[in-house]
Structure formats: C-alpha cells, structure tokens
Write a structure and sequence with these properties.
Layout: H1 3-29
Length: about 55
C-alpha cells in the first residue's frame, strides 16, 4: 500500500468514526420530549377500542 492510499484510508476511517461518535453523544445528551397525553376524546380510560378480526 503506497503512502497516498494509506493517508486516504486513515482520513476516511477517522472521519466516519468521528461523525458516528458525534451523533451517538448527541442522541445520548438530547433530553426526552414531554408527551402530554389527552384522553378526553376517548370514551374509555384505556383508550380507543380495537377489534381483532382474526
């Protein structure tokens, strides 16, 4: 393997690894969304009725 191929290989691997680590930590540090559940529109406290047609 010549020098230019080795440099290109290392740059590509380091770039992909850095981007992967950046997004991994971005996902870990993102606060969860607050979900406000509004059950007033449902006739039952357990949610809408579903029927299994099998």
């Amino acid at each position: 393997m010549n020098t230019s191929a080795l440099i290109m290989y290392l740059v590509a691997n380091i770039t992909v690894t850095a981007i992967t680590i950046y997004f991994f930590f971005k996902v870990l540090n993102t606060p969860p969304k607050s979900h406000q559940v509004d059950d007033d529109g449902y006739p039952d406290a357990h949610g809408p009725k579903t029927f299994d047609a099998t």
